[in-house]
TrEMBL record:
This is XRE family transcriptional regulator. It comes from Streptomyces klenkii. It holds the Pfam family HTH_31. InterPro entries: Cro/C1-type_HTH (IPR001387), DUF5753 (IPR043917), Lambda_DNA-bd_dom_sf (IPR010982). Residues 22-75 form the HTH cro/C1-type domain. It comes from the Bacteria.
């Protein structure tokens, strides 16, 4: 006997509302999950879990749903709200600020910042840091990571600058092909109207941000916030004095960093050094 479909709770959150609207539109169109899976090129099981809010929608699914159901931008607009619920509560405030920021400055000491990670690079990181997680759980983490990157594709994206320790570039994550693709993405971002990427070389030695990661978020009204991250936790600083101290530390590592042109050359050198 077939198990009855799980009850939906659209009043709980935008994520639940997304799932409820998906089921409603699918049933109104007389489509089974199998038929919808064929139309949007996602598995039946994945769509079933999205309907019941067990999984978050991946970034490219809302547009496909709007196209299949002829719903204009309904699912795209709903996803714009629901995606902020993907992240655990302790990170949600940081994500809300990141989505509103007009200037984002990042220092990364060990891995490429999430805002510019490729899908395969992110997947490799989540697999190694969550060895007991199921493949479905890993894919949900990857979807959450990629959803953050939508703000860089907005009509008016924030200005983004990054200083990467040379260790970020030299330590291969995933396969050589994964790392090569990630470095290619960084090369494209080195010096554009809205992005700047620089490398802090090993030759510089010690500095004030050694051992961690820092994100500075500046709003339209010039208010600023700082977020420090360790292996599995982070701290948001809102006190102006604490933020200014971290802004000064970032200014110094940026001053010590290679120029964009030198940075691009280092990325290319690192790509060439990867095994084929």
């Amino acid at each position: 006997m077939a198990r009855p479909p799980r009850k939906l709770t659209p009043d709980r959150s935008a994520r639940h509302l997304f799932g409820a609207d998906l089921r409603q539109q699918r049933e109104a169109a007389g489509m089974t999950l199998e038929k919808l899976a064929e139309a949007v090129r996602y598995s039946r099981s994945h769509l079933a879990r999205i309907e019941t809010a067990e999984h978050v929608p991946p970034p490219d699914l809302p547009g496909r749903l709007d196209e299949v159901f002829g719903t204009g931008e309904h699912f795209a607009r709903l996803y714009a709200i629901a995606r902020h619920e993907i992240h655990p509560d302790k990170y949600r405030r940081r994500m809300e600020l990141e989505a509103r920021a007009r200037v984002i400055d990042e220092y990364a000491g060990h891995i490429v910042p999430g805002l510019v990670q490729t899908e395969d690079y992110a997947r490799a990181l989540f697999r190694i840091s969550n060895p007991k997680s199921s493949p479905d759980a890993i894919e949900e983490m990857v979807s959450a990571r990629l959803s953050r990157q939508m703000l860089l594709k907005a009509e008016t994206p924030p200005d983004l600058s990054m200083v990467l320790d040379e260790a970020v570039v030299r330590r291969a994550i995933g396969s050589p092909a994964v790392m090569r693709k990630q470095l290619a993405v960084l090369i494209d971002l080195v010096d554009t109207p809205t992005t700047l990427v620089q490398v802090l070389p090993f030759a510089h030695g010690e500095h004030g941000l050694l051992g961690g990661a820092l994100t500075l978020l500046t709003m339209d009204d010039r208010s600023a916030f700082a977020y420090e991250e360790s292996i599995d936790s982070g701290t948001l600083f809102e006190d102006p004095q604490a933020v200014r101290a971290r802004e000064r530390a970032y200014d110094l590592v940026q001053a010590y960093a290679l120029s964009p042109a030198q940075t691009a050359e280092l990325f290319e050198d690192a790509m060439e050094a990867l095994p084929t």
